[in-house]
Amino acid sequence: MARAGFEAWDDTGSARHPAVITEAAESFEVQHRARVRRYTILMSIRIPALILAGIAYSELGNPWVAIAIIVASVPIPWIAVLGANDRPAKKKKERLAYTAGPIAAPAIEPARHTIIDG
């Protein structure tokens, strides 16, 4: 019988170790809100950049400065979409790391073929 507060099951199937809420992943809503915020910030940079290109062309009379600003703003939507679709970074415990150790035996042993002369 499990004590109150210790009903959470761990990976081994025992109720001895309670779940630690600080290790739980953020909820989908929190992740979604952060991704929307990141997308909005990045896309809000693009419109002022285009306006700045127009102002630079009208004030300086140099189209190359305006073109440079526009070219710099072209990848912003792509970066914003990639950032919005990206999942949160893995925690240190979740990261895969190579650990040196003995090489495991192959799952399938090589078949022995008998050769029949005849």
Automatic annotation (TrEMBL):
<dbReference type="InterPro" id="IPR021449">
    <property type="entry name" value="DUF3099"/>
</dbReference>
<keyword id="KW-0472">Membrane</keyword>
<protein>
    <submittedName>
        <fullName>DUF3099 domain-containing protein</fullName>
    </submittedName>
</protein>
<feature type="transmembrane region" description="Helical">
    <location>
        <begin position="39"/>
        <end position="58"/>
    </location>
</feature>
<keyword id="KW-1133">Transmembrane helix</keyword>
<keyword id="KW-0812">Transmembrane</keyword>
<dbReference type="Pfam" id="PF11298">
    <property type="entry name" value="DUF3099"/>
</dbReference>
<feature type="transmembrane region" description="Helical">
    <location>
        <begin position="64"/>
        <end position="85"/>
    </location>
</feature>
